[in-house]
Amino acid sequence: KYLLDGSENADTLEIVSSDRRNAAIVYDPDSAAPSAMYNVGVYAVFDETETGTVDAAKINVSDITDSDNLIIKRTQAGVTSGASTRPGNNDISEYIANFFEISISGDGKTLTFMPNSATLKTQKILPISLYIRVGKPITSATGMSEDKQVNVFANVSVANSAPIAVENIPLLLQKYKTGLTFDPKGAPAFRYRYKKYDLVEKNEELMLSLTEQLLYDMQELLLTRDGRQEKV
Questions:
Q1: Angstrom distance (rounded) from CA 138 to CA 147
Q2: Is 126 helix (H, G, I), strand (E, B) or coil?
Q3: For 214, phi and psi rounded to 5 degrees?
């Protein structure tokens, strides 16, 4: 379940693990070896009903294709070709790009989810089910084949960041007077102008102190939970 927001809040999921008990998707005792590499394909399907979650048992896997469902694929180097990563080019990948991006590590052992926005523009968010194909390639003199392929489903949900108490923005601006401004156009943003002194050390100390206080006041006045203003 993916609930993080903000560009620095990337979430990493281990695809392959040598720990049988804690393997998130695939268990392989060889995965701890630095030379272990995996082919990974991430696909997506939607449940457009009101029940919420995609039921994997009702999905015909043969209908999941690169052209219609691919989000990203990582293929390891073979005898005649190098390693490559290919993003999807379809309606589903464009829809998911509104909320987050997925990247695959070079060795194919982890997925990283990176949110694209802390606030979603639509109130109706379709639940997303990822279909993940993991293959362990084996290279020989005659070519490359996959020792085995594991296919799994992983359900993903996306949530907005904490609501903002818009009615308290004037209170915050009044407290900081001319130093703090708010631009509501485009991507709304606060901007704070610091007073500059001749001493570098004094500037650094002042900026740190004022920034900490400003963040604290923003938290107190603006962050809410479930529509109610509340200290976080």
A1: 6
A2: coil
A3: -65, -45
